Amino acid sequence: MTVTDEHFPSDTSQPALPDCAWAAFTEDGPWVLDEDSLVWARGLNVVRDRAKAEVPTLTTPSKVPHIGRMLIVVGRIGWAVGNWWVRKRLGRFKSTEASHSDLSLRLRRAIEALGATYIKLAQIISSGEGLFPSELVNEFKKCRDQVPAEDFDVVQRTIERDLGRPINEVFQSIDSTALAAASIAQVHRATLLDGTEVVIKVQRPDVARLVRTDLKVMAWLAPHLVGRIPVAALANPPALVELFAETIVEELDFRLEASSMVDVAKVLHDLGQTRYVVPRPHPQLVTTRTLVMQRIDGFNFDDVTGMQDAGIDTEDVIRTGMVAFMEGALIHGIFHGDLHGGNLFVLPDGRTALLDFGITARLDDDRRRAFLRLMMTATTNDLLGQMAALRDLGALPHDTDLKAVIHDLRLDEAPIDPTTLSGEEMVAEVQRVVKALLSYGARLPKELMLYVKNMVFLDGAIARLAPDLDLLAEVANISMMFAQRHGERLMTEIGIDAARMQVNLDSVKAGFGVDLSTDRLTYRELQERRDLIQKRMRAHVERSRR
Fold first, then answer.
1. CA 360, CA 344: separation in Å to the nearest integer?
2. pLDDT in tens, 77-99
């Protein structure tokens, strides 16, 4: 199916509120936002800059770590891994999957006991389907909204302290049972004095201090992990700690999150993305640790049966997600940085509500243009252009010999179909690529990490909502739609003439590991290939252990 503006019709029939003229809000909101009257939004550029400036201090290794906290962290993780190791040595597990599941469970419990910082790490891993072991991903998904909640009296004290008045002067009622509880905060349903139903996001007590202490412990440990284990070597632990600090520090001020809600809603409206909506933050009830927002209900993003029974086109839901996500990043340089099933609702009319803007990526113009080049060169099979874009994004040093990278990674050769390789050959190929990347100083910048993580989520969402979607056709259609809608910008910013652009999906096919002659690839077919690859890899690991 070709992606055109007709896929993004307006489903509204009633008069929209005035703020719908500039932002992707619901037409029947409980209040109207006036940008110039948002007291909590004043001076936030300074607040955001201050948060960024704090990162180098938090991630510079100290001579002596915070001994007490480090002992707690090492003790919790060590106890979990040690117990698993003993059971494994005693032969208590009937299969590798059972062993991985037991370890994942123990790690999840240890992480929950360690608190916000480590829970946030688990949440990031939980969005990495295809990047991390499935047992770990599935177990860590419970860290998204199944974390033990704080007692309500603690929540009440935080709300009253931040709003500066007793709770009964603002709310008619608040559900004492948390709707969801995660690393930084928990969410409660509530009703304002005028009867308006809302949701309150409340930060956990003392979480800001604990996060900063944990980041200092991580910064001290990170250099000692370099080269110790393959995953740590690839990730570059010190750089990973810095990336994580950049992500989590901004989450500690809910005024920044409310500002991101407004900014993303403006971007979606500007792009004509009428199939997405953002809940309104309250005009007055937003502070550093308390965020009152519009309540929106809908289908859970994983409730495929419910959506389809309601007549919702789940393929359209996926298509909307892919287009809106890419356009936000490439045209305006801003996108939701933490897509997962808990942050998305599908409304009865098929529109998608985007929730939880604690992690929002913001690109400066140079990096936004680099993202733009990366997408367009990938769909025209311009290998040198792709490498240059990755360099400009910070994934490669500026003095990198790009042609040498292409040669060493064998990108200029016909792609290897991994399903034709044995487990041993696949492991050898992965090791070859990793070694080549490390030799060039490759790293994963924050914005690229968030972009990739979101793409991994969309990949998994396709499996559930649109398994028979032709991936190659969708990439081609979205690329052409993008060129048609933004042709002038493409020419002005990166010198690509949209009228003459020829889609060449060889790079995309190589990324999927399929033969260049392939002209159709559904997600179901791709998943079958992945399952075969994983089966052979596991078999190789089992043989190696024997």
1. 15
2. 889 989 999 998 888 888 777 88
